[in-house]
Amino acid sequence: MNERFRLDNFLFEELKAGNTRAFDKIFNDHYPNLCRFAYSIVHDEDTAHSLVQQVFVKLWENRAALDHIECLTPYLTAMTRNHSLNFVKREKRNIQLTDIPAGVQTGNTTENQIDANAFEEQLIIALSLLPERCKMAFEYSRFENFTNKEIAIKMDISIKGVEALIGRALKSLRISLAEYLPSAMKGRSQNQILFAMIGSLL
Q1: DSSP alpha helices (H): ranges in the chain?
Q2: Is this prediction's pTM over 0.70?
Q3: Residue 97's beta-bridge partner residues?
Q4: How many angstroms separate the CA atoms of 69 and 122, rounded?
Q5: pLDDT tens-digit map of 107-126
Q6: Strand, coil or helix: 114
Q7: Which of 71, 75, 175, 202 is the most buried (most CB within 10 A)?
């Protein structure tokens, strides 16, 4: 057990006992990283800060009911993720993915629709895990409808560079979102299905 873990464990126990100084220390230690994590989901700095502040308010309010929590950092990260995803869901229209090309439904299900909310949540997480420039190029292409030439100018790279970044993003997204894609399809065909599914969210 290293020193950092022992300190976190001590602060957590003090927090549960109502020690305000322990709460302040936890806040100062975790707030910056949690804000960065929230920003990767909501893409707005003020909103990210507000959401993380809400997390800490709830942490303090629920401090007496945290005995079932073994480790503070994963708990705070999960709370931040849930608050951020809930914010995104509130801000977006609740759209069902009904316009999916034939063949998307797999043979082991009789459902005619994909759970839009679940897909959207996984997409947000998958995008947040992309390298920054891959995510930037992909979002310019799919969410802002920029051409590769326009993206190249905006990012100050070649068109081939843009294609490479988008290709890397698609490869990563296909892996992250594999459960929503027909396993019988590969590569470009899966890309087309993925584009259609993302387009249905916009």
Answers
A1: 3-16, 20-42, 45-61, 72-91, 116-128, 132-142, 148-155, 159-176, 187-199
A2: no
A3: 114
A4: 25
A5: 444 343 446 667 777 788 88
A6: strand
A7: 75
